[in-house]
Model the fold of this input.
Amino acid sequence: MNAAQEFEAVIGLEVHVQLATDSKLFCGCSTKPSDSVNRNVCPICAGHPGTLPVLNEKVAEYAVRAGLATGCTINPKSQFARKNYFYPDLPKGYQISQFENPICENGFLEIETGSEKKKVAIQRIHIEEDAGKSVHADGYSMVNLNRAAVPLVEIVSGPDMRSSAEAGAYLRGLYAIVTYLGICEGNLQQGNFRCDANVSVMPKGSSKFGTRTEIKNVNSFRFVEKAIDYEIARQIQVIRSGGKIIQETRLYDSDKNITSSMRSKEESHDYRYFPDPDLMRIQLSEAFIQKVKASLPELPEQKRGRYVSQYGLTPYDAGVLTQTKSMAQFFDHAVELAKDSSLAKGITNIITGTLARLLNDSELDVSQSKVTPKHVADLAQLIQGQVISSTGAKAALNQAWKTGESVESIVDSLGLKQVSDLSSLEPAIDQIIAANPKQAEEFRAGKDKLLGFFVGQVMKATGGKANPAMLGELVKKKLSGG
Amino acid sequence: MDASSLQFNEIWSNYDQKKSKPSELARALLSKIKASQHGAFLTVCEDRAMEQAKRLDQILEKEGKVPREKFPLFGIPMGIKDALTIEGVRTTCASKILENYVPPYTATSVKRLEDAGVITLGKLNMDEFAMGGSNENSAFGPVKHPTHLDRVPGGSSGGSATAVGAGLCAAALGSDTGGSIRLPAHFSGITGMKPTYGTVSRFGLVAFASSLDQVGPMAHSAEDCARILEVMAGHDPLDSTSLNQKAPKNLCGTGSGSLKGLRIGIPKQYFSKGISSEVSQSVQAAIQKFESLGAVQVPVDLPHTEYAVAVYYVVAVCEASSNLARFDGIRYGVRSDRARELSDLDAYYREVRSLFGAEVKRRIILGTFALSSGYYDAYYKRACQVRRLIRDDFTNAFQECDLILGPVSPGTAFKLGEKISDPLTMYLNDILTIPVNLAGLPALSVPCGKDSQGLPIGLQMIAAPFQDERLLATADAFQKGMPS
Done:
């Protein structure tokens, strides 16, 4: 029996989402990343004696947004707690977090893998402050507190996922939601969206979970999937060779694609949580919650539905377009510029085809590319108007990707306009028919499929500028002896 | 210059009559501080104080008389407990671990005082991190009683009490977590007040136990305490626990001499067998004085008083263990040169945190234990539940009475070193002051007599939440009605 038949994996994810507020969680310092070390620091976030935290109310609103978008119950009263542990990058010797009574509880996220849909429970969403960063150089350890007390929400899933693919789908879905909501900037490199994965395996069909390990702080979707796959395989191997899984925290090394032990449960901290006496409870009125609810933007799932029903896109294409907020915005903007919703399909083809490949190859987000919604709208229009061919459009997009110049000037400079006055092509057509007498004979005898062959040959000879439909008509007429 | 000439009215009348000016008073007190053997000051801000005083001299000259409208505490020389920060002035909390700490910001309470015309003479000695009742726990040596140098002034605001009592300043700021203003006021024969929790901003008060700490005034009279509180009180956007309500106003001069109809509650639990007979008699005499001024005595019951010390020594140490975690020598304070890298972190922490004194270590260990997984429910959570019962006791009592009167502490100022080796007895000293902090109430100690050795005795007056105004006004009336 192979591993997949014998064992089942159980995965739960804890995601730390950095909230896109201007100032930190408990003081007025900026949250913007800075190249200068310890620039965004004040006595409060440096934990000076006598300083006190004051809640940035925007943070509560953002957390409520996250909760409402994931079907959570919003607790009208929630409280902050101190999570006590020593580390040089933790200025107060405790992290202000939430323990009992988090701001949101009991939601879910629907994920789709292949053709299967599944609801993953979201157990809780709580607010907490980030720690600073330890830096090691020249034989010293140093601390940069720019990131200290930047606001986060931690979103904790149930142990509901059974494969790395499901975990990946959950993360991408959650990422789309928090970026759509505008509560997270979504910069993965800067750690705006970080994930800890709890992984265990159990005999298939069992209802008793195995001992879990926690993989810490992985900040790319692909690496989370690979780390989970590695960890599942490792655990199965340990069990099969008669070993026991130890409850521990493990780190993922993306270069070697392995996880390795960081600390065992025995070495883990006793955080000594207790309610933070420096902060009042967060009290949210029903009116406030309703106001936030009314201000929620269209979320990925709703957008997907609308793209299918309004523009007749396939669910697959709609899914690709809505995967990130920036992509959906790009698409919406292009459709708006095209002023004709019948162009939506053409726009979709360009985005999910050539543009998606370019983005993928360069690992860029659409917002970072030189290609604008205007480029795509213009190209779709030209294709529909049969001014350029789709081959020409591909060439134009490649050019726009490099230079960013306008479609009009690219079409001109590359001479991509299709030739609609076909009289200039007649000699070429005649020549090709003459050079292929056998095929011409077969066509006349009724082998219609050969029309494509002739059109292709002419296209090749004329550099693809001819309008294929009109060319077809003309070639047909010539072959038939007209 | 005796202590009574440092009453605010006296100071202002001297300024008005050109008998003195701020810089002269400041200079006189600074030299008195230098000559003093009390150990009350940890840092004397001579240059800073003289600069403030000279600026006030100019204003006085220009205005002709004390501009109390603009500067309600014009030219009042004060000392500040070393648990409160002043930008650029060393703040140690009487601890080795902060021996070199110079804060980059000023506490809200101090800022408000200085804006109102206070001259800050210096920073006052205390029990390390406000942990103690005798001021013997200072890393920089004990403070001595203002008039009996072989005795303790009480703690933890012992430097504040002695500085006022010995006439080294007109008033002082203290902080009160379990009696740290009232106990030294009682021992040292001055007036000290702990406001309702949240009345004075805690921003800039180095935290001992956040849910109990409160800054308060210590002075020669309830009237002067009121003047200080008036200036300090009021919402501070930098402290989430500061009350969002109007500061008490017009506290001064309300003492009419009559307390007609005032219902004074006498809790039997505050007169139990542990109280010394001299303290008890003195307080009884004060109660009679109240009656002679028109007040009516009513018995009240505070049945959960006996649990207060236990509750306090769970809540306070839990919060303290967390509050004091920031003292790791990484960002400020005394550093260790033992370690340079994370791999040596344990050695680093061990060296730096060994600088805490024995009492502070004891409380950090107790608090760490009580919050540990598996013990939280039995200690911290349970203590919070009983704390609520103690608060309910007061709520019920204040249905029957307007003020509660009782002793501050079972005895009077004891000898230096007498109880230092017996922390439990020391903890029991706080039995009558602790319930007030647990319930967040305003309370004060006013002098009401002396024992046979001439040691001062204070009367504790406790009011319902937000009745700070009434409390001070009543104390003022009592004080003015007392034969001095």
